[in-house]
Design a protein that fits this description.
Keywords: Transcription, Transcription regulation, Transcription termination, Transit peptide. One of its GO terms (biological process) is DNA-templated transcription termination. Belongs to the mTERF family. It holds the Pfam family mTERF. InterPro entries: MTERF, MTERF_sf. This protein is mostly helical and about 375 residues long. Among the domains are: about 110 residues, no CATH class; about 60 residues, no CATH class; about 70 residues. It is built from 23 helices and no strands. Helix 5 runs parallel beside helix 7, helix 8 packs across helix 9 and helix 12 packs parallel to helix 14. About 25% of the residues are buried.
Length: about 375
């Protein structure tokens, strides 16, 4: 007789149930152990990602840690293929680091079906490899934009505005966001405002080509600036209108008031400042320091009445070291010998280099032989 047969049947049943429950418990994995294994695997992947971002991509440990919250990979094959393509296209290590820092998800894209077609498209439109690297480094999320639905039509639209594909490349290099942003939000509403105001297409193109950042303002801000420039007396049909718009949008109201104050220290009234701005808007683009130094030189070194400068404000915008000082010193010699008169000073400053040398230097070498040496010395050209 077996031991079991001699036991109480109830006890046997209880023993069998206990044994079955024990087997079930043994068969089911411990949740804590499973979580530990998953956590360990995840931690290893995360550590590998951070390490690769530092060593292969050139990120700082802090940037790598931040980027690893958005991307994670267990092997380097995909990210390395992206990095290899960027290097082959002329991206420097610094540019690659910048791109990955600002757009880490690029490392998870397909190099052949996502990245390469966009780079090739930009190259086909006139961007050099160096251009592509600079533009993408400046705004890496351009690579997140659809080639067919965004990049191609946006580039076409910009090309139409600036009247050539070559100009479109130049405009985008100056302001990459014009290619990144939706034209229906960034450009079209403001172009419409300019057209309705009477600004000619060529002048609009000039604004897009050379002053693209002006369009980064909101449509409401842009509209107010256009109205303000019109109220200041600028004619929308003239190039000065877009120049004034650019200068006005480039500074805050407080900075504008401070510059009026700087000119005011030299005896200019607000109306004289406004008149000078209408004549040459760039006189208000000069820094407060530049305005002060230029006016100081004209008034104290050259003995010119400050209000004469208000009537020829273009001279404020010229380089003090490369234009104003060398030419004024030559002019002062000519003035002392009675060879020129004061009103021709502005002409001597504005004319191109070749014409200046012909009309104000070589023409008078017989009577003032020191002129060329003086000019070359002040220009830093003396041998």
């Amino acid at each position: 007789m077996s031991i079991v047969s001699g036991l109480d049947p109830m006890l046997v049943n209880l023993a069998r149930r206990a044994l079955l429950q024990a087997r079930v418990v043994l068969a089911v994995p411990n949740p804590a152990q499973t979580l530990f294994r998953l956590s360990s695997t995840s931690s290893e992947s995360h550590s590998f990602t951070v390490s690769h971002l530092v060593n292969a991509c050139g990120l700082s440990p802090e940037s790598a840690l931040s980027a690893s919250r958005l991307v994670c990979f267990e092997t380097p094959s995909r990210p390395d293929s992206i990095l290899r393509l960027l290097r082959e296209r002329g991206f420097s290590r610094t540019q690659i680091s910048n791109v990955v820092t600002r757009y880490p998800r690029l490392l998870l894209t397909s190099p052949d079906t996502i990245l390469l077609p966009k780079i090739n498209f930009l190259r086909s439109r006139g961007f050099s490899d160096a251009d592509v690297a600079r533009v993408i480094s400046a705004l890496p999320r351009l690579l997140a934009r659809s080639l067919e639905n965004h990049l191609r039509p946006t580039l076409d639209y910009i090309g139409d505005l600036v009247q050539s594909g070559q100009n479109a490349v130049a405009a985008i290099k100056r302001c990459p966001r014009t290619l990144y942003e939706d034209p229906g939000t960034l450009l079209i509403p403001k172009i419409t405002i300019l057209r309705n105001a009477g600004v000619p297409p060529a002048n609009i193109g000039h604004l897009v080509l050379y002053h693209g950042p002006i369009f980064l303002a909101s449509t409401e801000q842009f509209d107010k600036a256009v109205d303000k420039v019109k109220a200041m007396g600028f004619k929308p049909s003239k190039m000065g209108f877009v120049s004034a718009l650019h200068v006005l949008r480039g500074m805050s109201e407080s900075l504008w008031r401070r510059k009026i104050g700087v000119y005011g220290k030299w005896g200019w009234s607000e109306e004289e400042v406004a008149s000078a701005f209408r004549r040459h808007p760039w006189c208000m683009a000069a820094s407060e320091i530049k305005i002060t130094k230029a006016m100081d030189f004209f008034v104290y070194e050259m003995g010119i009445d400050s209000l004469q400068i208000a009537r020829r404000p273009v001279v404020i915008s010229l380089s003090l070291r490369k234009r104003i000082v060398p030419r004024c010193l030559v002019f002062r010699v000519l003035l002392s010998k009675g060879l020129v008169d004061t009103p021709s000073l502005a002409t001597s400053l504005i004319v191109p280099e070749k014409r200046f040398l012909k009309e104000f230097v070589t023409r008078y070498l017989g009577k003032a032989p020191q002129l060329l040496d003086l000019y070359n010395e002040k220009m830093g050209l003396a041998s």
